[in-house]
Design brief:
The protein is of the alpha/beta class. It has 22 helices and 13 strands. The chain has helices at residues 3-12, 14-33, 58-75, 78-88, 116-132, 135-141, 143-174, 180-209, 236-261, 268-275, 295-298, 303-318, 338-350, 368-372, 380-384, 414-419, 421-433, 447-453, 470-482, 501-511, 514-517, 541-547, and strands spanning 39-47, 96-100, 106-113, 219-223, 279-284, 326-331, 356-360, 394-396, 402-405, 436-440, 458-463, 487-495, 535-536.
């Protein structure tokens, strides 16, 4: 896949991508602009006495972490939440998050709110209510019992120190004794004092573990929430950027999806890939209110006239090796403008002082006579039925260079007439007296077009970009191959401004040139008189020569 194939959908649908991106970014900015700022307040608590203990054990640290996880769950339960709302007189708490830091027994309470004071108050009150659910609060409620325990600890501490001193004194006295009886008695006293010391130390440790200072299941605040002054959100510019990016991504994806779903022929690359030929003509949409069939004749210096000259030149290049005189102009649909292309191509070729015959060979739904304002009869079908001579069917342009033959009344068997030897003789006789025969045929999906294509030198296929589906084009191509048709090339017709850049260049190049814009609507020097481009031709040069032929 080429780089331009990747970028092409983005360039084609740039307006959709731009609108979605701007609408998304603009709407997100307006919405976030109305939102009040958000503030963040945080309180940190610690479980146990690990921070105050100079030598905490691994068991104490592990137990603190486990207790912290329990308190995190408790902080998000109704007892703590309801107590906090009641204490602050709130109907609803702002959003808050409680989390435990790994392996250190710390608990963080983070509150976000549009009011900084409320965020601070809720964070601190949640911490206070969580502490009230712990044994720390129970110890405060039992102050008298705690006082008695503290007194006992003080007495034990004094006795332990006195006993340790007695043991040291007796050990010194023991070193000066010589009598075995005295030594044995002193050793017995020392053993009794050591037993007493161990018992007092055990009692002291038991009582101390029951106090707040020695308990592991305690909860205390180490960092209360401060009043936040700087908002933490919303980040309006970041939100706008993200929404714009999302809009750009979605619209770009939609552009690629539309291109994937759209299987119509839109670019010269599509023509080359599907039909195996090239685009040799690019015709813009003609101005409203002007006769399209004679646009080149009436506006010889217009950009569209120059586009037809570009087409004429490419046809001449295609006929360098093999002469191309009989050209069938056809299309895949009735609305592609093949008749307009055929008539203007005839006038463009005639401007080179060539004798051109324009033949309407669409015997089912003819349209040339309606465009030029002539009666449909006599025409080609009357020649087939030998009701008139060929010369009686011919009209000519004002400069006598383009001869026009209408289709005549639609016959009941057009395919049989077009496939007959008589049609070959008609074309042969016309070929002898004209430089070019431009045949306006039916759409190629009709059998008649394939029959005519087998009798001409080449086919000019008219396509409106973005309307012909690839499957239809492939069916038409198969019919052309079966009939041995030589495709001269494709004409992109009725190109609108803003369509694919690959061929817009060819149409806008003429329109942007001051050379072609000067007097674009004027006629050539031999068109000063306001004459109809088609009129009844009597004994013209072409008519006389055709009359001599036996059909």
């Amino acid at each position: 896949m080429k780089t331009k194939d990747v970028i092409s959908p983005l360039l084609k649908w740039w307006w959709l991508i731009l609108i979605v991106t701007l609408v998304g970014g603009g709407s997100s900015f307006l919405i976030t602009k109305q939102q009040p700022p958000i503030y963040r307040a945080a309180t940190t608590l610690v479980v146990g006495r690990a921070l105050n203990d100079p030598n905490p054990t691994n068991n104490e640290l592990g137990l603190s972490q486990q207790l912290a996880d329990v308190y995190v769950t408790l902080a998000q339960r109704d007892p703590v939440m309801n107590a906090t709302k009641q204490a602050l007189g709130l109907q609803k708490l702002p959003n808050y998050v409680v989390s435990a830091n790994s392996n250190n027994g710390l608990i963080d309470i983070v509150v976000v709110d549009t009011s900084p004071a409320r965020a601070q108050a809720v964070a601190n009150e949640l911490a206070r209510q969580l502490i009230s659910q712990s044994p720390t609060n129970s110890a405060q409620d039992q102050a008298s019992q705690q006082k008695f325990v503290n007194q006992q600890l003080s007495d034990l501490q004094t006795n332990i120190a006195k006993t340790q001193q007695d043991i040291e004194d007796r050990q010194k006295t023991l070193q000066t004794m010589n009598s075995a009886v005295e030594i044995a008695d002193a050793q017995s006293q020392i053993n009794a004092l050591e037993t007493k010391l161990a018992l007092m130390q055990t009692n002291y440790a038991t009582l101390y573990a029951g106090t707040q200072s020695g308990a592991l299941n305690t909860l205390s605040v180490i960092e209360p929430a401060a009043l936040p002054t700087i908002p933490v959100g919303p980040n309006k510019w970041m939100i706008m950027l993200l929404v714009s990016l999302i809009g750009f991504t979605l619209s770009s994806g939609t552009a690629y999806l539309l291109e994937y779903i759209d299987s119509t022929i839109k670019t010269p690359d599509d023509v080359s890939r599907v039909l195996g030929t090239s685009v040799i003509g690019y015709i813009s949409e003609m101005e409203a209110g002007k006769e399209g069939w004679s646009y080149v004749y009436n506006n010889p210096r217009s950009p569209i006239a120059e586009a037809f000259r570009f087409l004429r030149t490419n046809i001449e290049f295609a006929s360098l090796e093999t002469p191309i005189k009989k050209i069938l102009v056809t299309s895949a649909d009735v609305s592609d403008g093949k008749t307009t292309v055929a008539t203007n191509l005839a006038f463009s070729i005639a401007q080179e002082d060539r004798k051109v015959i324009l033949l309407d060979a669409d015997l089912r739904k003819p349209s040339v006579h309606e465009l030029v304002g002539l009666p449909i009869t006599p025409g080609l079908s009357e020649v087939f039925r030998e009701k008139v001579n060929m010369v009686d069917t011919i009209r000519s342009s004002a400069d006598k260079r383009v001869a026009l033959i209408t289709s005549g009344n639609p016959p009941p068997n057009p395919a049989e007439l077009l496939a007959s030897k008589k049609m070959e003789r008609v074309l042969s006789s016309l070929e002898e007296v004209a430089d070019y025969i431009i045949i306006d045929g039916p759409p190629f999906l009709i059998t008649d077009a394939a029959i005519i294509a087998s009798k001409v030198d080449g086919v000019l296929l008219v396509i409106r970009p973005g309307l012909l589906r690839e499957d239809q084009a492939r069916v038409m191509l198969e019919q052309m191959k079966r009939s041995g048709t030589k495709i001269i090339g494709v004409v992109f017709n009725r190109i609108q401004r803003g369509q694919a850049k690959e061929y817009r260049y060819y149409t806008l190049a003429y329109e942007g040139s001051q050379y072609y814009n000067d007097g674009a609507g004027g006629a050539s020097s031999n068109n000063d008189e306001k004459k109809k481009p088609a009129s009844r031709m009597g004994n013209s040069r072409l008519g006389g020569k055709i009359a001599e032929k036996k059909l």
